[in-house]
Amino acid sequence: MTPALEVQDLGYELPGEAGGRGRTLVRGVSFAVGAGETLVLLGRSGSGKTTTLKLINRLLEPTAGEVRVAGERAADVPVTRLRRRIGYVIQEVGLFPHLTVERNVGLVPRLEAWPAARIAARVRELLGLVGLDPATFLARYPHQLSGGQRQRVGVARALAADPPLLLLDEPFGALDPITRVELQREFQALEGRLGKGMVFVTHDVREGLRLGTRIGLMDQGRLVFLGTADDFRRSDAPEARAFMAAA
Amino acid sequence: MNLWQFYSRNAHEVLGSVGQHVFLVAISTGVAIVIGMPLGILLTRRAGWRPAVLGLANVFQTIPSLALFGFLIPLPLIGGIGARTAIVALVVYALLPIVRNTYQGIVGLDPAVREAGRGMGMTDWQLLTQVELPLAFGVILAGVRVATVVGVGTATIAAAIGAGGLGVYIFRGVAVVDDTLILAGALPAALMALAADGLLGLAERRFAWRGR
Q1: Separation CA A1–CA A35 (nearest Å)
Q2: Nearest by CB to B116, which of A79, A90, A141?
Q3: Do A93 and B212 touch (CB under 8 A)?
Q4: Of the residues A121, B50, B85, B145, which has the fewest C-beta atoms closer than 10 A?
């Protein structure tokens, strides 16, 4: 079966001044994520995790290497179509403040011109999936939700058009510790049921070990470790040891 | 003769002037919106044009209005005596606040919102019409409000080049040193400015999404 995501030798270099070479943010990153698998990209701030995510959905254009989503070369697909097939969850600011929960979740299906009845049914189904009662929440605006509720809506929105791949950029980063653990548990339960490929960026080791099928550790733009959570705990790579010590 | 006697004797003529005044302001603000909003949006997509366009609009703003009306008279097509010339000048004044607020309203949005829209696969047009313009609408409306209020005042000077409106009474009053006559033009103009300010301010608050 084709993996949900294959990344081969990915690199990104900032455009330099006057044609010179710029700073390299990501270099030689390769991995694959199968259906039902969650790869956690772990690393300190500025290690290139978020940049790697943006290279996958082409918010940044890779300067080296190749990305394949469900077998298809990302560079060959029109960029808007590519992004509609990749769910994208970012910290709470990603919800549109002028749209109700219903409109936020139904956004990509609406862009894809689904019939209204199918959108309405899909939005209700997804709110149920993330544990929000549709009758209570459909007509609310993001500012009327708690941080945890906003994040659930964000996950529901990313799943709306049933994409094979989900990118999550510190989705629980802005939550209080209790809500955070609660959402992590629910997310864990969802992972198995959804059968999607996921790339989950975080700098929280415990969160990473809890949610990841595999862990990828990034340092200065490189992927310095790739393996299961157990491999990571036992690893003697200095960067991995430093992270484990902080946990 | 006091103000009320003047109004009751000349009700028909005064109402006509009020109508002319509203017409001058409405048409010029409308045209300024039609030109200014796309121009402001263009500046958000072509950052390089920003200094030139905003600079030019700023320069126009500094020309004294009476002088601008005068400059326009000898020009072909847009010049001459009458309402058409006045509208051209009023559009020039209304342009800056509308262009500037359209640009600022969009550029000032949280970049994460724009990125979320792009990340979900919106085209630039969808991002503009479904996210940026609705969210910037309050700020754009504030620009329209400033343009309208300034327009009501500036339009009184349009009487100097025969465009009619409430300025007719003011100029007549100044010429014959008659306070009542000046007030007959100035009072409804002031009320009109207050009404425009109040109504557009109400609409603006209705559409302000930020800070909630």
Answers
A1: 9
A2: A90
A3: no
A4: A121
